[in-house]
Write a structure and sequence with these properties.
It comes from Proteus mirabilis. It is found in: Cell membrane. InterPro entries: ABC3_permease_C, MacB_PCD, Membrane_comp_ABC_pdt, YbbP. Its main location: membrane. It holds the Pfam family MacB_PCD. The protein has 635 residues and is α+β, with helices and mostly antiparallel strands. The protein folds into 3 domains: 294 residues, no CATH class; 173 residues, no CATH class; 130 residues, no CATH class. The protein has 17 helices and 18 strands. Helix 2 runs antiparallel to helix 7 and helix 2 runs antiparallel to helix 10. The protein is elongated and about 110 Å long. The relative contact order is 0.10.
Length: 635
Amino acid sequence: MIWRWFWREWRSPALLIVWLSLALAVACVLALGRIGDRIDKSIYAQSRDLIAGDLVLRASYPVDENWLAEAKRMGLTLSRQMQFTTMSYAPEGDTPQLALVKAADNLYPLYGELETQPTGLKAEKGTALVDARLLALLGIKVGDNIDVGDATFTISGVLVQEPDSGFNPFQIAPRILINLADVEATGAVQPGSRLTYRYMFAGNEALIDEYQQRFDPLLKPDQRWNSLKQDNGALSQSMERAKNFLLLSALLTLLLAISAVAVSMTHYCRSRHTLIAVLKTLGADNHALRKWIIGQWGVIIVAAIVVGSLVGWGFELVLLQILAPVLPKSLPDASFMPWLWSVGSLLLIALLTGLRPYHQLMSTQPSRVLRSGTTAPSWPLRYYLPIVALIVVGALTLFAGTGVLLWSILLGIVVIAFLLGVIGWLGLWLLKQFKFKQLSARLAVTRLLRQPFQTMTQLAAFSLSFMLLTLLVLLQGDLLEKWQQQLPEDSPNYFLINMSKPQVQQINTLLATYHVAPTDAYPVVLARLTAINDHNAKVWADARDAGNNTVRRELNLTWHSELPKDNVIVEGSWPPVGNGVSIDQGVAQKLEIKLGDELTFVGDTREFKSVVTSIRHVDWKICDQISSLFSQKKG
């Protein structure tokens, strides 16, 4: 009976629109959700590879062994690493070379790939993997010996790239990877040695979070976490932008589907009031009618899920082609959650848009057969709409979070919908003032004026639907345009360092022969910020931001007569006068430094003081940026 009812009603255009709208909602949410889920997994995998673990604890001194024992007790995998700089020698050579030595245990890396030549090598005890540049400088090759500090190692291969090496254009020393068990033999660990300890943890996300939260209050000033939740550069930002576009598109698609289903469902149920009245007159009770109607609604939902799922996978392939410029070449497979989200969205739309019209349909009185104008009782809109609004807001908060952009757009949509309703009411009022001669025009106007609220609602829904479609198209173009404009076409992607002043002109001449325009070359020196207004810098920083490591590391300083490109003065004036210095806005905000404050730097065994004369906004997505900038050389 339900199937016969369904196939007979299938010919109704209103019911067909309802089914197509629900199927479209499933398809769009599934396609966008699957891509968003795959982007999430890709960002997670990328972040995990870049730090070679799920969580990294970095310190200047060895960490309490009880902390590490607790990690193992919780079931986390632990890998240890130590970094230091020391001199390296070729056994037959006389010229030493400064090298950055990384000592790791046999578990390193927990994630990512250690690129070596030949492939698949690790630093075994008594062996070393050496940067090709260092091999060339020392005049040695794979299979030879190399002296690192007081120890001699056999070179087992070339160190090409470590997953957690990152990118630092100011890192001059070539790299050596040795086994952690060989550190003591090098003699590099002495009182006063500058060492960096890294402890990498891998395991279940919940256990990682629990471990970090447990020991976070116990961190010392030299200790800091590095986790997957931290930003990992421009690629992650591009992918995050693509994810936000997909999320916003899914929300707008849901709103579009809700408006379409609401209008078509209301129209369909209104057109079936007389049929229900006739069936009740012929003896059909509410139980039988409810079974037919709920069964029909269930068939529609199942059909929408099946067809929407198939179409959704097709949409996913199309979207992957559209978003190809901002996505990696390969993405992980999606989980089952996007499909559950799409089905949940379908059920939510079905309840919000179908519950009231079907309730009104079931409330149809048999007397409607004789009096067609009889209106079936239903839930008052003044109560129903606020409840629906609360459900929608709660669902959107769960689905979209509390992003300002998303909620601003949704608020704008609500305001526009209200304005469209007002415009519709004014339009009806104007129609009422005109006298139409043609009978068809008079009947049409009379029909519109008979139910003004329904007319205004439909006008607002259709207008809003066209606006949402236009907004989706504009957002797609804006996403691709923003990605393309993220870095100018002439942005530098090669960096030359450790040049002497006479070599700069020679390099510029060489680049000119290949029609390559170089950026400005400037000197870079390392110095520590030791005092702020004659107060100890570490004490000053801990009082304002205990997690800030600006005063615990060396800063890049330089001097230049002109303001570098992509730097904008936000306070003060350029250039610095006398002993003035221009500092980065981020550093100024974290340390609460303002114009006129005196900073004390120590570099190359010399101390010098400078007064802050300007604060600059620095685009750190451009690699060649400096935190502190002078207009002339100091000392």
